[in-house]
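Section 3.1 - Work completed
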Amino acid sequence: MAIPGTAPFGSKTLPQALVAVARRKPGALFLRVVDPRAPEAPPRQLTFGDFERAVRRAVAFLRGRGVGAGDRLLFFAENGAEWQALSLAAQALKAEPAAIFAQLGGEQAAAIGLRVKPRLLVVSDAAQWSKLSGAAGALAAAGLATVVAREPLAAGALPPGVAAVSYGEIFEGAAPELSPAELDALVAGGDGEDPFLLLFTSGTTGRPKGVRLPQRAMLRAIEDGRASTAVTEEDDGLHFLPFGHVAGHDQFMLALAQGHRLILVARREDVPRGLALGPTYLFSVPLLYERIRGEVEARLARLPRWARPLGRRLAPRAVRRKLGGRVRGLFSGGAGAAPGLETFFEELGLPFVELYGMTETAGLISSNLFSGRRVPGSAGHLSSVVEARLEPDGELCVRGGTLMTGYLDPEDEEGAFTADGYFRTGDLARFAEDGTLHVEGRKKSLLVLSTGKKLSPEPIEQVLASTPPFSGAVLLGDGRPFVAAALFVPPAELERLGAAGRDPAVELLEQARAALAGFSEYEKPKRVLIIPGSLDQHPALVTPTLKVKRDAFLRWAAAQVEALYAPARS
């Protein structure tokens, strides 16, 4: 779907944007890379010129392996500078990079790999490759010729005819490389409809869909992302969202095209190391911010009542110190923020900007800063390159410059678009009188009670998950006479209630209903299922971005859910 218009950042493609910034400020710092394998080591530093040279080497390598227009690469690896250098090199050659989450299990990764049919595969290490070993022969038969890893894979680990190559062979020493002039000439022929990336949806309601994003979609998304976030060339962003998620690319490509710095962290547990380097902004899914708020509120609750006013006055300083001391803004995307989260950080003096989008729209549909003001509880105003309308049932449909080319598999296209080219987002939404967009839940996750009442579970789950002591929640009730909730609770809290002689189910139901005071009576749970621990301790029940896989949860807890709704309890 070709979209007319001027080229954002003066470029038609991201490789062109890379060349432009590398020629403009080659010696300026671009990346500080935190090495997960060396906890005590300082970050590795790369200038824009260093990174552009890595891309020139990656182009030479890919050409040498026969990669060209129409070929696909598959990235099944942790974040890293090399990851993006190889991806941009593939884009310069008009090949199509594809990415999946590094945390995926072998079965799901292999299934996607066989749909992608890559000529070249990038993995983190031998352990990552071992997840795919059962499908190695099938991948080779489908065209896999090369496996790239940080360190050389052992001889005999790959099928016959498949070569193993290490990062060092591509990026270090006397590795071949294009000259700057050769890269300039190569990228000059790029077009906005060239492939940028093939990404996969989270699969909360079924098989992940392959989303084919063109260059113009990402460029337009980051152009409006720059306007919404007000990030400048002087900023240092903390980057830890995975490259399997579109938001990870939004942040990286904005920094690349604009010319600002990034602190690159591959693993969530290394985020404190990144924060210690003093970022000026964070971009995260809401979970990180919810945990920070939970920690602050828990500390205040432990103080004597007389000391709490002082604790609240000191909280802004403590939070800023925890975030590295230089943060001036918090950006949130990938999921809806819980009610009150924006207000909490705004009261601490930290602007909180929520962006809304999805993989199919290159991660951007609306933002809270397009209107020049923030509206807590909303997804803000539409991007300047997005048109939107609501279907009679409330489903949001969009079209515009950030929209994908289409899906990898033709069967996924069925019903995805309206007759006049609007994409059906699957989100239920409304527009307020001030023009702000309010997203109210997923159409497919709508709960329809046997009484005929309908409700979206996500807003209720967000409130519960952000209310101590709950660490996660799944709302139940589809086809049932009333709403119930599965509540994930820290074992220490359950032990505390038991030691006090109180029934956890009764006590926690009361707390849950109190937290939902602003909701209608039929939306509040009448029964609760208490599950010790946290939702993210069960990888099979959540996506890599920690969204609930509702069908998977209902299968996992089928017997307990049935007991919850037994006639004797209704």
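Second construct:
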Amino acid sequence: MNYKQCVIFREIAKTNNFTKAATNLFLTQSAVSHAIKDLEEEAGTQLFERLHRSVKLTPAGELLLREIQPIIEEFESVEARLPDLEKQPPLKIASCITYAQTELPQLLQRFSVNHPEAHFNVQVFPASESIARLETGEVDLAFIEGKVQQASFQAKKIADYRLCVVAAPDFAEEQLSLPELLQRPLLLRERGSAVREAFESFVVLQGFKPFPIWESVDSQALVSAVKAGFGLSVLPYRLVKEEILLGKLTEVKITDWQLTNDITALVRKSRYQSRILAEFWKMLHQVN
């Protein structure tokens, strides 16, 4: 017994007529007759009494109708809710702090214009945790700083940014060499962050090693400390651009400094993509 047979059976019981049931269900009379024949063979008994111009349920048919009616109604309820099931779960996003504080809000707003039914759940994590949560399916998509070489992910570079050195507005020197920078009090992001790794890799390649006096997972905490005159920090330019333009921070040029980082979007290759996630991923291919 399958769902289609149950629907046909119920419609015949409702109309007392094979032809009317076939018309109502947009089926041929032959298809309806075959479905009932198969159902009666499976039940091992006659379900309809054939009259001259109509049919009526046998006692076995009446019993079957009572049993299958709740099942059909449950199927119909699920079918009616299917369009909404796609809309209900929010798109779960893990993001690095740099992208979350700069371009991600505008990106989500842009997507919402064409997809007003979309909802988002955004959490900010370091790259390692974002990747771990994506791997386990806790999030649908991740934005990280840097590159990822992992076969289980689809990756898309959507932006890049340069790293800059910032100081308090009254900092006297406009330019420093790298050794001079490393002699100053440094306020850096925590070990393992993309900004810290990019800076340390650059410094080590030049034959040096940084020794920060302040480390933080919060870029804004570093900005506040820099403003207060505790030292210099290395941060994404896009994160401090407005405060530089407003004179609340000053950018210090570093000799032979060319340091950039990528923003990469990731999804799992093997994971089912909802319609919203598929549309969002498609939009990301138009970014940058």
